[in-house]
Design a protein that fits this description.
The chain is about 20% helix and about 30% strand. With about 190 residues, the chain is an alpha+beta fold.
Length: about 190
C-alpha cells in the first residue's frame, strides 16, 4: 500500500510540474507576442499630387514603430516661404482643387489650433513649415496620437489625406487656419 501511495504522490507531483511548465511557456509566448506587436514596424509611402494649378509634388513616408508614427514629407514646387500641412478627413484627392479631401481630420471634435495646445487642436493640425528659395522642403513630424491601420478611429490615419496649402496656418481661424488653396494632395491608403 505504501508503494501505491508513493507512486501516486510522485505521479501527482509530475502532473502539477508539467502544468506549471506549460503555464510558464504560455506566459512566455504571450509576452513574446506582445513584444512582437509593440516592435512591429509599419511603413506607408504616399505620393503628393499637384492641385489648384500648382506644380507642388513630392511624397510622404509614414512609419509606425513602438506605437509612434513618424511622417517625413519631401515636397517640391512650392513658393518660397511658409506653408501649412494638414491631414484631411478623406483620402479622395480627385477634385482639381483638392476640396474632395474634405475638412481637417478632427475625430475628437476639437477646435482648430496649434498641435498640443491646451485650447484644443485637430488630429490633422500638423502645422507650418518653410520652403527654401528653390521651393523645396522636408517636413518631419512624430506623434503617438496616430496609427497606421489600427482599430482606433480617433488615431487611424488610413483613409485620410495629406494636404499642402499655398499659405500658412494662422493657428487660430476656425475651422481651418485660413491657410489658402490646397496645392498638393496625397490619399493615405494602403
Amino acid at each position: 500500500m505504501k508503494k501505491i501511495s508513493v507512486l501516486l504522490l510522485a505521479l501527482t507531483s509530475s502532473v502539477i510540474a508539467c502544468k506549471e511548465t506549460k503555464k510558464d511557456e504560455k506566459s512566455i509566448e504571450s509576452e513574446a507576442s506582445k513584444t512582437e506587436r509593440v516592435n512591429q514596424i509599419k511603413t506607408l509611402t504616399v505620393a503628393l499630387n499637384a492641385k489648384s494649378d500648382s506644380d507642388v509634388t513630392g511624397n510622404a513616408i509614414f512609419t509606425e514603430e513602438n506605437q509612434t508614427v513618424k511622417m517625413v514629407a519631401t515636397i517640391s514646387g512650392l513658393e518660397p516661404g511658409e506653408h501649412a500641412i494638414h491631414i484631411h478627413a478623406s483620402s479622395d484627392c480627385s477634385s482639381p482643387d483638392g476640396s474632395s479631401a474634405g475638412g481637417h481630420w478632427n475625430p475628437t471634435n476639437q477646435p482648430h489650433g496649434k498641435w498640443g495646445s491646451e485650447t484644443g487642436y485637430h488630429k490633422g493640425d500638423i502645422g507650418n513649415f518653410t520652403a527654401n528659395k528653390d521651393g523645396n522642403a522636408i517636413v518631419e513630424f512624430s506623434t503617438n496620437q496616430w496609427c497606421i491601420g489600427c482599430d482606433d478611429n480617433t488615431k487611424n490615419i488610413i483613409g485620410k489625406s495629406l494636404i499642402i496649402h499655398a499659405g500658412f496656418d494662422d493657428l487660430t481661424s476656425q475651422p481651418s487656419g485660413d491657410a489658402g488653396a490646397r496645392v498638393s494632395c496625397a490619399g493615405i491608403i494602403q
